[in-house]
Amino acid sequence: MAARSDVGCRQIITLVLAVCTPLAVPVASGRAPASSQIAYMSPVGGNWEILAVDTTTREVAQLTRNRVDDYAPRWSPTGEHVAFYSDVGGFNWEVFVMRSDGTDIRRLTHRLDLDMAPTWYGDRTVAYTARTGKAFAVHTTDIDADASEPLGVPSGVALSWSPTARRFLYVSADAKGTRLRICSGDGDCRDLLTPGADDPVMPRWSPRGDQITFAGHTAGVRDVYTIAADGARLARMTNHPAHDSHPVWSPDGSQIAFSSRRNGNFGIYTMDAEGGNIRRLINVDAGASSLDWFDPRELSVSPLGKRSVAWAWLRRLGHRP
User: Fold this and answer.
1) How far apart are CA 214 and CA 277, in angstroms?
2) Strand order across the 267-272 sheet
3) How far apart are CA 238 and CA 224, in angstroms?
4) Is residue 64 a contact partner of residue 105, using CB atoms and an 8 Å limit?
5) Cα dihedral value 267, 272, 278, 281, nearest 10
6) What is the dihedral of CA 65, 67, 69, 74, to 10 degrees?
7) Phi first, then psi: what are they for 315, rounded to 5°?
8) Which residues share a beta bridge with 217?
9) Terminus-to-terminus CA distance in the chain, angstroms?
10) Torsion of CA 86, 207, 156, 66, to 10 degrees
11) N or C: which end of the chain has fewer CB atoms below 10 A?
């Protein structure tokens, strides 16, 4: 398998005690997929790799082929790029970006710590969760600048940015247990209560930013749930002896895709956004995680508009692009 290369420095496969400063060269724009695609991660040849399945033809393409594990793919708003994070060795996770076809892989973070859970706001800016010591906080990086900046906003894992770019949510795990937290534009955060759905994880916003889907435990089984962003209308969407997890909305908001081992086989499934009409999209023998859905027919908000809103919101928190 081919190893990655950074611009201006050698690829880091194991932890090194040196500082590598790459040259800042703009990332070339890729071509967005021409059809609806679900990206996901799955073990291939002993490593976690990133793949994508066409939701119409069900054809699968492998996007990464590396000697290390690649996690949590996220399409950019235009579908031209995919952000993800990777274990580059020595319990060191870093954020990368690549074109939608898996080419031009480039490392975005160089902190030699845990940088994970990338999410987009605007087509060329990535927010992610960064660990420093025992604390987690939201950082950002422009994919052209090779420069990471903290926002001064606390976070946990599984960061998910609202499509309106005015709030985000994450999973917090501490002495109080595992719970969802949602943060508003003024920097205030609150718990999103999910009574009956224990240990909520894997939260994802709906395309309109008014609902959230997540996976929660009920009687020892993980199922897919939805809840309004204001904490109302908690609903259990699946009810099956097998674990259902990693839910994500379709870009038009009409469906939810998720991963499951129902019927004895790992696979990716879809269902109506209101629940029901569950259909298997593909079998994935080794399992599929961290799903993300892109459809070129649903580019309803321009990247420039989304980014303008995002920067205005971030300036309120004291961030300077």
Assistant:
1) 19
2) 244-249, 255-260, 267-272, 279-283
3) 5
4) yes
5) -40
6) -30
7) -65, -30
8) 198, 222
9) 37
10) -10
11) N
Q: What is the pLDDT of residue 138?
A: 82
Structure tokens at 158: 């599984």
Count the neighbouring beta carbons within 10 Å of the beta carbon of residue 91: 9
3-class secondary structure, 5: coil
d(CA 254, CA 246): 17
Residues 190/231, Cβ–Cβ less than 8 Å: no
Token pair recorded at residue 144: 């052209």
- Whole-number Å distance between alpha carbons of 297 and 316: 33
Question: Nearest 5°: phi and psi at 233?
Answer: 55, 50
| pLDDT tens per residue, range 158-200 | 778 888 767 888 888 877 788 998 987 566 888 999 999 999 9
Among the listed residues 245, 248, 247, the one whose alpha carbon sits nearest the alpha carbon of residue 266: 245
Give the distance, in angstroms, between the CA of residue 102 and the centroid of all CA atoms in the same chain.
Answer: 16
Beta carbons within 10 angstroms of residue 14's beta carbon: 9
CB environment 263-279: b (16+ within 10 A), e (fewer): eeebbbbbbebeeeebe
- Quick one: tokens of 67? 């000697």
- Show the tokens assigned to 245: 């997890």
Residue with tokens 């070339």: 28
The pTM of the full predicted model, rounded to 2 decimals, is 0.83
Q: Which residue has the higher pLDDT, 285 or 91?
A: 285
- C-alpha–C-alpha distance, residues 40 and 71, integer Å: 8
- Secondary structure (3-state) at 262: helix
DSSP summary character for residue 35: S
Angle value at C-alpha 282, between 279 and 286, nearest 5 degrees: 125
The rounded distance, in Å, linking the Cα atoms of 306 and 293 is: 18
Q: Is 173 helix (H, G, I), strand (E, B) or coil?
A: strand
CB atoms inside a 10 Å sphere around CB 25: 11
Single-letter residue type at 190: R
Count of residues for the chain?
321
CB 278 within 8 A of CB 238: yes
